[in-house]
Amino acid sequence: xxxxxxxxxxxxxxxxxxxxGPALLIIAGAGSGKxxxxxxxxxxxxxxxxxxxxEILAITFTNKAASxxxxxxEALVGPEARSMWVSTFHAACMRIxxxxxxxxxxxxxxxxxxxxxxxxxxxxxxxxxxxxxxxxSPKALAARxxxxxxxxxxxxxxxxxxxxxxxxxxxxVAGQAYGPYQARLEAANAVDFDDIILKxxxxxxxxxxxxxxxxxxxxxxxVDEYQDTNHAQYVLVREFVGMGGAGTGTATASLTxxxxxxxxxxxxxxxxxxNILEFEQDxxxxxxxxxxxxxxxxxxxxxxxxxxxxxxxxRRPKNLWTDAGAGERIVGYAADTEQDEARFIAEEITxxxxxxxxxxxxxxxxxxxxxxxxxxxxxxxxxxIPYTVVGGTRFYERTEIKDMLAYLAAVANENDDVAVRRIxxxxxxxxxxxxxxxxxxxxxxxxxxxxxxxxxLDEASRMTARARAAVEGFVALLDDLRALAAxxxxxxxxxxxxxxxxxxxxxxxxxxxxxASRIENVMELVAVGREYGEENPDGTLTGFLEKVALVADAxxxxxxxxxxxVVTLMTLHTAKGLEYPVVFLTGLEEGTFPHARSMETPGExxxxxxxxxVGLTRxxxxxxxxxxxxxxxxxxxxxxxxxxxxxxxxxxLVDWRRSEGLDELERARAERLSRRxxxxxxxxxxxxxxxxxxxxxxxxxxxxxxxxxxGPDLGLGIGDRVSHxxxxxxxxxxxxxxxxxxxxxxxxxxxGVKRLLLRFAPVVKL
Length: 766
Ligand code: ATP
Ligand code: MG
Fold this sequence. Notes:
Blueprint: H1 11-18, E1 23-28, H2 34-47, E2 56-59, H3 63-77, E3 85-87, H4 89-100, E4 111-113, H5 115-128, H6 138-150, H7 155-162, H8 170-187, E5 190-192, H9 193-206, H10 208-217, E6 220-223, H11 231-240, E7 254-259, H12 274-277, H13 279-282, E8 287-291, H14 299-309, E9 330-337, H15 338-354, E10 363-367, H16 373-383, E11 387-389, H17 399-412, H18 417-423, H19 433-446, H20 450-453, H21 465-486, H22 490-500, H23 503-508, H24 513-535, H25 541-552, E12 567-571, E13 580-585, H26 602-616, E14 619-633, E15 636-639, H27 644-647, E16 654-658, H28 664-675, E17 721-724, E18 728-736, E19 743-747, E20 753-757, E21 763-765
Helix pairs in contact: 1-2, 2-3, 4-9, 5-6, 5-8, 6-8, 6-9, 7-8, 9-10, 9-11, 14-26, 15-16, 17-18, 17-21, 17-22, 21-22, 22-24
Bound molecules: adenosine-5'-triphosphate and magnesium ion.
C-alpha cells in the first residue's frame, strides 16, 4: 500500500484516508484533522491509482476553502490534480447547468440573479398581485421563496402547504407569489441563487441518462462541513452517489462526508443538523470513524471549548483531547465601553507584535455582528495596525453607511453632486432614471449644480407630474433636515435621516437577516455621531464629516504587505474551518453574543452556543475573551451583563486582566439606566418608550425583532379622534410605521403633540 499520505497521521486518521467502501462518515470535533484527512484522502486516491483526477468531486463550504484544498492536493500529488472538481455546491452545480441547460429549459446564455436582482423581480410580482409593500416586503417574500427552494418545494406544492395559513401572513402570500415569481424568472431565462441547487436536483431526477453520465464520471464524492448542508444539497449528494429515491438501489460512487454536529451554525439558512445525525440511517452500510485528538489548540483552549459546548443538550457527547500541553491561560478583559475594549485589543496586539514577535497575520479578531467591527477598526487605524475585514465590508464602505453619510453631506452642502445623486432616489421615492436625466439636463443648461437644479423644476421639461411632486418632497425633506441640523448634533441628524427618509422603516419591514444587521450599522453610526458630540461639544456637521472622511479613507490602513500580513477581522460565521495562533473573541455580552434575537428559544440559543464553540476552537495558542459593560446599541449606550458563554468557561482557565470594568458608582448608574426600560432584553422594543403612556421620548422608533408579532391594529387614520388614559382627548396628526412599530402622532391640545408607540399606548379610537 502507498503509505506516503498517512505518514504523521494517527491511526484513526490513517484509516479514514485509506478506507475503501461505499460510504464513510468522519465525525469529529473541531481541529481534529477532518479537512486534513479529506485532503490526504484525495491525494491517496490519486496516488494509489484508485481514482483519476476527473473522477473526484470535492465540496467545500466557501470558494476560499475550495482553492485552499485544491492547492494542498496539488502540493501533495502535483499539477495533474487540476482536473478534479473542488468547489462549493453552487459552483459545481453551475458548471453542470451550463452544460445541461437544454434539459432544464434554459438557453445557453441564461443569467444568474443575485439577491438584489431577485428582490427586484419580486417587487414586480408583488405589484402584479397588488400587495402592499409595507406589509409584505419584496425582500421578505424573496427570502421566503428561497427557503421553499432549499426544501425542494415547487410552486404548486408551496400553494398547497400555505393555503391554510391566514391570508395575511407572509407564509401564505409567499406561497401565492412563488409561482408568478418563477414564471417571470423563467421568462427572463434566469435562475436565482437557490435555483442553482434545485434545478440540478430536478435535472438528475427527471433525466436519468444525464444522472447516469455524472454518476459514471464522479466515482468519489467528498463533502467537507457536511453539518451545514441544507435539504436540497443533501438530496443532490444522494443523486450524485446514485442513491436517489431514499434508500433504494445501491450507491455507485463512494461518498465521504466529514462534519461536526457541534459546529452546525446555519440552521437559519435551511442547513439541517439532521443530515449528520441520521447519516447512519440513510446510508446503512456507512463506515463511521471518530477522530478524538485535536491538533490545533492547547489543552486550556480545548477545555474551555469543551466546557462551553457541554451545556448543549441536543448533542452527542464527545471526548476531544490534545497533547499540546496546557499552554498559556486564556486572557479575560471586561472593558468599560466598546472603545475601551478596542483599545485593549489594539494595545495587546501591538505588544504581541513587539515582545512576542508575532506577525499581524497570526492574529484574528472575531465578533458576532458586522457592526461591532467599527470601534475596533477605528482603534486599529489610530494604532497603525494593518487589518482586513473578511466576509464583510469595512464599516464605512457599507451601502447603508454611505447612504447615511451622503444625506449628511447633502444637508451640509446642497452642491455636493455625488452625495445628492446618491440619495435622490434612495430609498425609492419615485424619482426614476428619466427624471434624474431631466434634472441633469436642466442643471447643465442653467450651469448650476444638480442639487440646485432640483429647485428649478420647470426647466426640467421632460418630467412627469408624479416625479415633480417626488422631487419637491425630496427638497422639502432636505430643507427640514437642514433646519434640524442648525441646532442639533450629528447624532440627532443621523437619527432623523434614518427615520424621516423611511430608510429604517424599509429595513425593518424586511425579514432578511442582512437587513437586521444593516439597521445595527445605521444605529452604530448614530453612536459615532454621539461620540463626536461628546468629544467636540462645539463640533459642526462639517467637522463631523471631515473626521469620518479621515477614518473612512482606505489609504489610512497601513500597507498590507510589510511581510507580516494583516490582522483579520471577521464575524464568527465567517471563521468556520479557519485557524489562527492568536484569537480575540469580542463582545461577549448577553444580548450581543448570544445575540438578543437568538435568546428567545432554546433551539436558537444552542445554535449560538455552537457558534461560540466554533469561535473558541479557532485559536491555536492564545485566546482572549473580552466584553464591554456599556456598548452602544441602537444608537444609545446600554448596560450589558457578561455573556453566559464566558461564565461557562471554567474560572481557573482564565486570567482576568480586568474583571470589573465599571466602578461601583458607574455600575449603579448604568443599572439604573437599564432598569428604566433600557435593559438588553428590551433592545428590540422598549427603549426610549415610556411603557405606561406609550410616549416615545425621542425620534426613534424602536426596531422590532424579525418575526415579532404584529402590533395592535387600531385602524387609525389621520384626523381620527382618540382617547388616551393619561393625556385625554386628542386628534391623530400623523402615522408612521406599521404593526409592531406603528406610531401615531397625536395632538393633545394644551399638552402638545405626543408621539405614541401604539403597542404600548393606552388609547382607543373614538
Ligand atoms: P474544523 O472542525 O475547525 O474544520 P478540522 O477537523 O477540519 O477542524 P483541520 O483543519 O484539518 O481540522 O486540522 C486542524 C489542524 O491540525 C491543522 O493545522 C492541521 O494541519 C493539524 N493536524 C491535523 N492532523 C494532524 C496530525 N496528524 N499531525 C499534525 N498536525 C495535524
Ligand atoms: Mg475543517
